Amino acid sequence: MSVEFVEKKRWLFLGLPFTFTRYVIKEDMITVDTGVFTKVENDCYMYKVQDVEHTASIWERMVGLGTIVCYTGDTTHPKLLIEHIRNSKAIKEFILKESEEARLKRRTVNMLDIGSGEMGDIDDLQ
Question: What predicted TM-score, i.e. pTM, was given to this entire model?
Fold first, then answer.
């Protein structure tokens, strides 16, 4: 079963979709289409998404919108903004789940040592 979200960037004025930015979020990639006269299409693979943040200003909440910030390892968009969209919380959860699954499929999961303290201090090793 293939899940796909297609959203348009909206104005904060009544949440009207009068912009020329379209977001397509699929299981394997995020595509951002912008422009009227010069069309620009930018893709980011899901396995490159490292962290996701959801924000909603008071104006966005009043019209049922939100903004998603994806921190990625992509060179063209290290901080990919998906601005002023509907269903933003559901899309954020979808991106989190699918990016984790994509990393597991490609075996690109990074393990970080967050300093649990079990190994002792670095002074103890010297």
Answer: 0.79
End-to-end, the C-alpha distance of the chain in Å comes to 55
Sign of CA dihedral 93, 99, 105, 109: negative
**Which string of DSSP letters, residue by residue, matches 16-43?**
---SS-EEEEESSEEEEEE-SSS-EEEE
What is the C-alpha to C-alpha distance for residues 80 and 99, in angstroms, rounded to an integer? 14
Contact 23, 31 (CB under 8 A): yes
CA–chain centroid gap for 124, Å, is 41
Hey, what domains does the chain have and what are their CATH numbers? 4-107 (2.30.29)
The one-letter code for the residue type at 78 is P
Nearest CA-CA partner of 46 in 104, 89, 2: 104
Strands 40-45, 29-34: pairing kind? antiparallel
Q: Given this model, what pLDDT does residue 122 score?
A: 47
Task: Provide the mean pLDDT of the chain.
Answer: 85
Amino acid identity at 119: M
Task: Tell me the per-residue pLDDT of 56-74, one tens digit each, with 9 for 90 and over.
Answer: 999 999 999 999 999 998 8
